[in-house]
Amino acid sequence: MAIRAARVLIAKPGLDGHDRGAKIIARALRDAGMEVIYTGLRQTPQMIAEAALQEDVDVVGLSILSGAHMTLVPRIREAMNEAELDDVPIIVGGIIPDDDKAALSEMGVVGVFGPGTSTEMIRDFINKLIAQKDGDD
User: Fold this and answer.
1) Which of 104, 110, 120 is nearest to 88 (CA)?
2) What is the mean pLDDT of residues 17-43?
3) Nearest to 11 by CA among 67, 73, 70
4) pLDDT > 80? residue 104
5) Checking DSSP bridges between strand 90-94 and strand 109-113, what pairing results, if any?
6) Who's near 98: CB < 8 A, 6+ residues apart?
7) Sheet containing 109-113: which strands, arranged edge to edge?
8) From CA 28, how far away is CA 123, in angstroms rounded?
9) Domains of the chain
10) Contact status, residue 100 vs residue 70, Cβ threshold 8 Å
């Protein structure tokens, strides 16, 4: 059984202006056959939730290098829940201390990817999420 193409939103929340990693991931996922929507820099939680809703995405990927993940992720999850996107998983990439991973998981983050994570690993993780989701339907 073939896995359908995932629709993935890649977002850069907050004031972090470094988007090279987000663009690399977006391109790698696109090259792997996924439909990728890149929101650009300096997105608010509400902007991310609105884009996820409008684009009917399967996964929201956040790139956070600023250290503000413990502030931004709960706000994004709340905005997504308010938009009735509580079933859309969030993955996070960036500089995330190991000590914060459990708290992020409790907030609904299903995957955390730090520096050095291969694009193949992220692709495979998303494909597994989609296969599990489609298996539940």
Assistant:
1) 110
2) 95
3) 73
4) yes
5) parallel
6) none
7) 35-38, 7-11, 59-64, 90-94, 109-113
8) 8
9) 7-136 (3.40.50.280)
10) yes
